[in-house]
Amino acid sequence: MSDQRIFTRYKANEIRSELQMVDVKKMKSGVTKKKNALRKIIANLTLGNYSEMLLLLPEILKFWKIEDDMEVKRICHEYIRTIGSIKPRSTVESLPFIMNDLRSRNEKVQIMALETLVSIPFSKFTEEAFDFIVHLTSKKSVPEQLMKNAIYSLVQLDDYDHERVASLLNLLYDIVTNQIEKPTIQIAALNALCMIHEVDGKTQPVHISVDIAFNILELLPTLNEWDTATLLEILPITVVPQTHDDAYDMIDMVLPQLQHVNSAVSLSALKIVLYLLNYIEEVNQTIIKRLSNSVIALLEKPAELQFLVLRNVILLLLSREQSLLKLNVPYFFIEYNDPIYIKDTKLECLYLLSNEETLTQILDELEEHATDIDIQMSRKAVRAIGNLAVKLGENSAGKCVDILLHLLEFGVDYVIQEIISVFRNILRKYPKDFKSDVRALAKYAGYAQETESRNAMIWIITQYSDILPDYLKLFETFCTNVLDEAPEVQFSVLTSSIKFFVRYPSVETEKLCIRLLRECTEDANNPDLRSRAFMYWRLLSLAREDGNNVTNEMLKDIVDGELPKIELNTKLDSAILEELELNVGSITSIYLKPTSQIFRMSSMKSLPNSPVLNSNKSLLKVIDDLTSIGVSHSNDRVIGKNHKSIKNNKPVVHTMNDFDKPAETVNHLKGSRKSSISSPSKLARKPSMLMRKLTLKKKF
Amino acid sequence: MSSVLYILNENLEPLISRNIRALPSTDLPIAQFRKLYHPGSPPVIRGSHDTFEYMYQSFSYVYIRRDSLFFVSLVDNTVDIMETLHYLEQFYLLLKNYFTVKMLDKNLILDNPILVMELLDESIDFGFIQVTDAGLIKDYIRVKINVPEIDEKNKQLNLNGGKHHQNEYDDEDDMFGSESDEGRKKIQKQRRKLKHRSKSTTKRELGHLTKKVIQTWKGDKKKRGQLANDDDDHDGEGHDEDEDDTFMNSDIAKTTVMAISWRTKGIHYAKNEFYLDVIEKIEYYMDYESQTVRKNTIHGQIVCKSFLSGMPELHVSINKILNKDKQFLSSCKFHQCVSLESIEDGKEIIFTPPDGDFILCSYELKRHVRDQPIIKLSQFELKPKLNKFKLQIHCTVESHFKPTNITSKLNVQIPLKQLFKKYKIDLSKNIKSKCDEGKVLFNVSDDFLLWEIGAMKGGHGENQLSMVVEFALFNQEEYDRKQEELRTSMNPPPLVKGIKLEEIYQQIHADETDATEETPVPNKREQEKAQLLHINFEIPYSTLSGINIEYLKIEEPQLQYQSFPWVRYKAINDEEYAYAV
Fold first, then answer.
1. For A503, how many CA atoms within 13 A lie in the half-sphere containing its CB?
2. CA-based nearest distance A648→chain B, Å
3. Is the CB of residue B40 less than 8 Å away from at least one CB of chain A?
């Protein structure tokens, strides 16, 4: 059956007639036809054909009454939900049917009905939903799935009626603290609590005591993967360790989750460990290693996940004063099939990772990309090399500059332009060191076409005019057509001409200067440019006039003063960093901006206070020694805990010291299949016989 | 928390949308997404709040692009993006698993809207992710899958039309040396096989499911029927055709909230077997000219198939874990069933497996650049003999694995695209080839030579196989002479038997040349891609990393049954095992 036809817009009448035709026949073949017609309704709703489909409500209700097929029911519910979220009032007629389903003995139908009730923003439905949930909580044996759904539906109901939900919050607290035997419910309740609080914004964030947290964490191995993720996700901030030991123990319990295959779990585990690290004195080297390993393993995931990991974990961790990750540079080398957003982020990571040791490696990689066919990429690589030169010390800058000069010979115009732009920054940082290279660069003055590189070139020529014999000629190429330039270039041309004049007062420079001043004051449309030109003009004429104490020296000082050295700021503000670390995996950390800047009306997260909170992050010690105090503490506790759990579960402790013996007891052949060999041990010992036996097996 | 989930087609039009948080409209947000999205934008896009007055919160779009579809989730700012992204990924896998296809396309989604809706419903409640394990959901949702056969028909049409763009080497009528009729027959046979296979797998899958569930009820058939009727409320999505499908293991419903959420109770098999396959995919990339290795990685997976009754506990010991191999331990990711604490102890992996197929763990090992590749291309040379109007390609491979092992498959695919561009090759003359082992095939449509070696012995460089292919180059002088002869002589032109390769080549590449003219500067990457010499191989009983399963023990304390564990190893090539030549 091809369902292509279903996905076309239908008129209500067409479908109605189709449905009625089926009514008449009441045959078995009619069932599929009827379902087909109903499917068409759903398809049309997806297409957004609401007004037509709204007319079919009576038909739908009729079917609902007589039909108890699951699929039909599902379609009916789907219909009411979609229509209901757009036109809540029109669906009131369906309320009795939904209530009927809600009272059904089938758990699935009940859940469906509850979801429908909740998804319609209309007071009558909401009332019923509340009543049902209250009724559920009073009952003793409620199916877990249903209970879980009821709890989560509260979050949705919170949008409609906050007061009423707030009155039910105590119930949720009760579940969190008491229902130890049902971990899923417990976590659902805790999650719902957090959600409701977060949306509210006024009330204090949820807190649970350390004991409860330990109880829940004990359950970790038995939880479903998504529940684990949720739990680890909400634990930071909700639980505040009161002693160092608490924090150590929690870290130990969470650590294995770092190796979970579900990346949501491992990232959440990372997050909680990061959070807990604020509450301990010193951290073991092995923990750092494991954190790094789990991050690296996450980098093997599909591009989108990789992006997230790169973006908000690594960047964050690397911008800490004292890095918590030990990562090798080659992990961040760019591969040609990476999407552009990954390439960008990797470049940033490389930049953050760079230091004296890794520089050569990184530069090799960047140089390769600088000659890449992809224009954007090669520009970014050149830019990164320049930034590295500014970030690191003079020795490293030398290496970077060598590469840049080498790339100049590559001769592609956009690379040259980019090099010119970054060279300005390098020269600002190290005015003296690379003087000798300026002449080589000046040869490429003709390449500078874009605003930024033109600007940079003009600046370089002006600043190093003392070593460039033909500076004026070079400069004149830039000021032939000043009025057509971009505003930034106009400004720098103007300023440079003044500088030349002040530095080397001669007929040529004066002529040039006057010409530019005239053009800028008389022909330019940009008021800023005009006023700046006038300002210079007045300044110059002031200096000319006698009687003022404006000397040529002063003029030089004003126009051609010494420039401050530039610095590149890579570190984030510590308060922001702290908040971002609490938000690992959320949207804020992708943009590396505090929540309040991205979202209005959202409260800021901060580390809750506790007697053991580290006031200063740099105090956290990294230690190698396994016998140190903190670890031995935690080890004791963990061993103790293991004993406890063993006692609790009464597990069969299997020792595997017999693995080298032949598997006699394992391979019993029993039941109908009689073996030609009487004793099983023989069978196992003779592999050839075993093979024959096994070939008899049926195929699945 | 996800508010709306969409599946979009390649034009960003919604195929399916699921309004989770009862937003008044699902169309408006997606219209904005269409504006904001541009190829290459990161997987998280911030929506601008101002366009929708009714939105109570700020929101973002999280999306992944798979096959030709977009999976988009509209999320508010409280969400854990990692969770959402991972969920979208898992949902995509879930769909693929359900449809048992390798690639999803929009028609599949459009054909099964109810199924997709149900899957969405089941996997996410009020924006909170519940389950994404295909094995489990399959027990829940058993809507009949509507897989169109049109696709296959289309394919058939395409094939008969003579335009084969699929990179099937087995389109034998393209290869020289086999007659076209025979080739077509072969293809048809294969196609039939393919059809058959796809049908039988889906059937088997369904059958497997039902069998398993039925076996939990040990009554006779009639009894079962009655039970089904009694349990009418329980019955899933009633299947009129297949009564067996209406059964649902009542234990299943509880599974998701139990401690071991990945396995239902009451599974029973007559024969208890457990298959454990260690599969290592080897990725290798080398620039042959400069002899620089760009990639040399092992992507390993331990794939298991479990047909065990009850709630067994398995102990697996891996030498890498015993030896505390650091690289292995750090890169290894385990399935959720593995108790991660057991790995901490460093002895063995303890787990209760889910039923059916699953991946126990996956790992990634980087090899040293100087480590020899498992199959090495030791010689590759073009020898143009222009005075004789001949062009020879020499190629030699050598093996670098245990001498006791033999490859079960080994294909070397030599690209010819550049060659055809560079030289004028006369296809009207026979192509000569000689090789130590296997056979050499020529694919006209995709421009490559395929050297099928098949079995090759292992060794450490001493085992070499080589081949030579000789193309004739176009000889203007000779051509002119022949033309002249044709015109002057009375003899009819010589009859050419078999297929005329040059004509086929012309036909296939006619439209291509047009296309290339439009884009005169082909991307460097694509150029490089066209110049890759791929090697496909499969070596059973061997792993490159030396991973070894020390023992595998199955214990089921209640049932105490006898069980059969099977362990296999295999090394195969990853998608990229290539030399740039």
1. 16
2. 15
3. yes
